[in-house]
Design brief:
two-stranded antiparallel sheet; Amino acid/polyamine transporter I; single chain; globular; mainly alpha
Length: 497
C-alpha cells in the first residue's frame, strides 16, 4: 500500500527538466493564449450550443455557460499555480504524482487520456457536420453511408436508433490530416493554429455583431423552459426535471453538457515544457484565454437563442442554420467556413495535448518508454504516440455518435479538475515554502469552490457516464497493476536509495 501512494518529489521533477531528451521551448505567452483559445472556441460555440439549448436548457444556456465558466475559473487558478511550480509535460497527471501519490497519478493520467481522445473524437464529429453543411451549399452531398456514425441516441424515446450510415468519413479524414501536421512539429502546429484562431475569432465577432440585430426577445420566453436546476445523483434526478430517457434537464444539466467547451484551458498546462518562460507565461495564458472565451460563449448563446426559438435550433449546425432561418442564407457559407477553421484548431490542440500525457506517463515507467516516450530526433515531437492518438480518434469519431462522446468527455474532465483543486489544498500543507511564481488566491476558498462546482456538474450528468467512467478506470487498473506498478521509475529509484 505504501508503494501505491509514493509521491514524486518536486525537486526530482525540476531535476528531470534538465534532461536533454525534452521538448522544444519555443512557445511565448501570445502563442500559448492562442492555443488556449484555439482549444476552447470551436465545438462549444458551433456545435454544443445547439444540443444544450435544444435538449437541456433553452435560452437559460446563457447562465449554463456562466456557471461552467465560473467552475473553470476556480479550477484554472489551481492549474496556474501548479503550472508555475512544475513546468513540465503531463498537466494534472504530474501534479497528482507530486501531491497525491502514484496510484492517484495513474488514475488521473488514464482519465486524461480518455478526456483528450474522446474530446478529439467529439470535435471531429462537429467538423464533419459543418463540412457537410458547407458542401451542401454548393449542392454536394456525401452518400448516406459516409455521413455519420451508424447509430445515435434519440432523446425523445431514450433509445439508440440506426442512422443508415456505416461511418463518419469526413471525421476520419480530418483526424488523419491533423495527425500528419502534429508529427511535423510544434512550431508548425502553433502557426497553423494561430491562423485558424484568427479566422474563427473574426467569424464569432461577426455572429455577435450581426446576429444581435436579429434577436427577437420573444424567443427568450420561457427563459428556462426546463428549469434552473437539473441536478442528479448517479443518474437519479434529485432537484429539477427529468427528460426523455430519464436524463436530468435544466440549466445546470446544460452546464454539465457544455462544460466540454471549456476544457481547452487545461491543455495549455500540457505544453508547459514547450513554453519559453512557463512560470509566468502559462498562468497568464490559462486565465486570459478562459476569460475571453467565457465572454464570447455567453454572447453567442444570447444571440443564438434570440434569433431562433430553442426548439427550432438545428443541433448539427446551429449557428449557420440560425442565420439561414432569419433570411440570411449567404451568411451560412461564411459561418460554416469559419466553423470549419475554428473546429480544426480545437481538434489540433486536443490531439496535440494527448501524446504529451502519454509522454509524461512513459517517462515515469507507467507506459512502455520505447513507444510512448519516443521523441523524434528531427521534429522533437512524441511522434509514435501522436500517430496512435490519430488512429484512435479516427475510429471513435467514425462509429460513436456526438451525444455519447460529448457527455463521456465531460465527466473525465470534471474528475481531473476536482483532483487539481484538491492537490492545491494538499501541496499548500506539504510544501508551504516551495517557490510559487503564481499563487492561487484566497486558498482554501477557491479550491473548495472549484471542488463543489465540479462535483455538482458531475452529478448532473446521466448515470451512463458514471458507468462508462468506472469501466474505463477499471481497465486502467488492469494496465497499472499488470505493467505500470512493476516498471515505475520512481519506485526503482527510491528502492536504490
Amino acid at each position: 500500500m505504501k508503494r501505491l501512494f509514493q509521491k514524486k518529489p518536486l525537486h526530482l521533477l525540476h531535476e528531470e527538466m534538465k534532461d536533454e531528451n525534452r521538448l522544444h521551448r519555443i512557445l511565448g505567452p501570445v502563442t500559448l493564449t492562442t492555443l488556449g483559445i484555439g482549444a476552447i472556441i470551436g465545438t462549444g460555440i458551433f456545435v454544443l450550443t445547439g444540443i444544450a439549448a435544444h435538449d437541456k436548457a433553452g435560452p437559460a444556456l446563457m447562465l449554463s455557460f456562466f456557471v461552467s465558466g465560473l467552475a473553470c475559473i476556480f479550477a484554472a487558478l489551481c492549474y496556474a499555480e501548479f503550472a508555475s511550480m512544475v513546468p513540465v509535460a503531463g498537466s494534472a497527471y504530474t501534479y497528482a504524482y507530486a501531491t497525491l501519490g502514484e496510484l492517484m497519478a495513474w488514475i488521473i493520467g488514464w482519465d486524461l487520456i480518455l478526456e483528450y481522445a474522446v474530446a478529439s473524437a467529439t470535435v471531429a464529429h462537429g467538423w464533419s457536420h459543418y463540412f457537410q453543411d458547407f458542401i451542401g451549399i454548393f449542392g454536394y452531398r456525401l452518400p448516406i453511408c459516409f455521413q455519420r456514425a451508424p447509430f445515435d441516441f434519440d432523446v425523445k424515446t431514450g433509445l439508440m436508433t440506426e442512422t443508415g450510415s456505416v461511418m463518419d468519413l469526413p471525421a476520419i479524414i480530418i483526424a488523419l490530416i491533423i495527425t500528419a501536421i502534429l508529427v511535423k512539429g510544434i512550431r508548425e502546429s502553433a502557426r497553423f493554429n494561430a491562423v485558424m484562431v484568427a479566422i474563427k475569432l473574426v467569424i464569432v465577432l461577426f455572429v455577435i455583431g450581426v446576429g444581435i440585430f436579429f434577436i427577437n426577445t420573444d424567443n427568450w420566453i420561457p427563459f428556462a423552459p426546463f428549469g434552473y436546476t437539473g441536478i442528479s445523483f448517479f443518474g437519479n434526478t434529485v432537484i429539477g426535471q427529468t427528460g426523455m430517457g430519464g436524463v436530468p434537464i435544466g440549466m445546470l444539466a446544460g452546464a454539465a453538457m457544455i462544460f466540454f467547451a471549456y476544457i481547452g484551458f487545461d491543455s495549455i498546462s500540457t505544453h508547459a515544457e514547450e513554453a519559453r518562460n512557463p512560470q509566468r507565461d502559462v498562468p497568464i495564458a490559462i486565465i486570459l484565454s478562459l476569460i475571453i472565451c467565457t465572454v464570447l460563449y455567453i454572447a453567442v448563446a444570447a444571440v443564438l437563442t434570440g434569433m431562433v426559438h430553442y426548439d427550432r435550433i438545428n443541433i448539427d449546425a446551429p449557428i449557420s442554420d440560425a442565420f439561414k432561418q432569419v433570411g440570411m442564407p449567404w451568411a451560412q457559407m461564411l459561418i460554416s467556413l469559419g466553423a470549419l477553421a475554428g473546429i480544426t484548431s480545437v481538434l489540433l490542440v486536443m490531439m496535440l495535448s494527448q501524446p504529451r500525457i502519454f509522454l509524461a506517463m512513459a517517462r515515469d515507467g507507467m507506459l512502455p518508454q520505447k513507444f510512448f516516450g519516443a521523441v523524434h530526433e528531427r521534429f522533437k515531437t512524441p511522434w509514435k504516440s501522436t500517430i496512435l492518438t490519430g488512429l484512435f480518434v479516427a475510429l471513435l469519431s467514425a462509429f460513436l455518435p456526438l451525444r455519447i462522446l460529448a457527455e463521456l468527455v465531460n465527466i473525465g474532465t470534471l474528475f481531473a479538475f476536482v483532483t487539481v483543486c484538491t492537490a492545491v489544498l494538499i501541496v499548500r500543507k506539504t510544501h508551504p515554502d516551495f517557490h510559487r511564481p503564481f499563487r492561487t488566491p484566497f486558498v482554501p476558498l477557491v479550491p473548495v469552490l472549484g471542488i463543489i462546482f465540479c462535483l455538482v456538474l458531475m452529478f448532473s450528468l446521466p448515470a451512463e457516464n458514471w458507468l462508462r467512467l468506472i469501466i474505463w478506470l477499471l481497465a486502467g487498473f488492469v494496465i497499472y497493476f499488470g505493467y505500470g506498478r512493476n516498471h515505475s521509475v520512481l519506485h526503482h529509484r527510491l528502492s536504490k536509495m
